[in-house]
Amino acid sequence: MRVKITMVCNECKQRNYDSMKNKKNDPDRLEMNKYCKFCRKHTLHKESK
Ligand SMILES: [Zn+2]
Q1: Rounded to the nearest whole angstrom, what is the distance from the C-alpha of residue 7 to the centroid of ligand 1?
Q2: What is the model's pLDDT at position 1?
Q3: β-pairing verdict for 41-47 and 31-36
Q4: Can you give the CATH number for the domain in which 28 is found?
Q5: CA of 19 to the centre of ligand 1 (A)
Q6: Are 19 and 29 in contact (CB under 8 A)?
Q7: How many domains does the chain have?
Q8: Number of other CB atoms surrounding residue 17 within 10 Å
Q9: pLDDT, tens only, 1-49
Q10: Residue range of the domain that includes 9
Q11: Comparing C-alpha atoms, which of 2, 1, 14, 5 is closest to residue 47?
């Protein structure tokens, strides 16, 4: 059930993080605050696609 996901900055749309998630635990699109080096601050990152 583990799938690869890509976290995309919600402000600049850069793909900053590759990650894994468990579809059983996280059936929905993940959102988290992470540091974006392009924005140079913490921004909301969303799972791509
Ligand atoms: Zn950004």
Answers
A1: 11
A2: 86
A3: antiparallel
A4: 2.20.28.120
A5: 17
A6: no
A7: 1
A8: 16
A9: 899 999 999 999 999 999 999 999 999 999 999 999 999 999 999 999 7
A10: 2-47
A11: 5
Strand pairing category for 31-36 and 15-22: unpaired
Q: Find where tokens 């909301």 sit.
A: 44
Q: Distance, CA 33 to ligand 1 centroid (Å)?
A: 11
Q: Please name the residue ranges forming H helices in 1-49.
A: none
Compute and round to an integer the Cα radius of gyration of the chain.
11
Residue 29 DSSP one-character state: P
What pTM value is reported for the model? 0.87
For residue 34, the CA-to-ligand 1 centroid distance in Å is 9
Ligand 1 centroid – CA 28 distance (Å): 22
Residue with tokens 């699109």: 29
Going from the Cα of 10 to the center of ligand 1, the distance in angstroms, rounded, reads 7
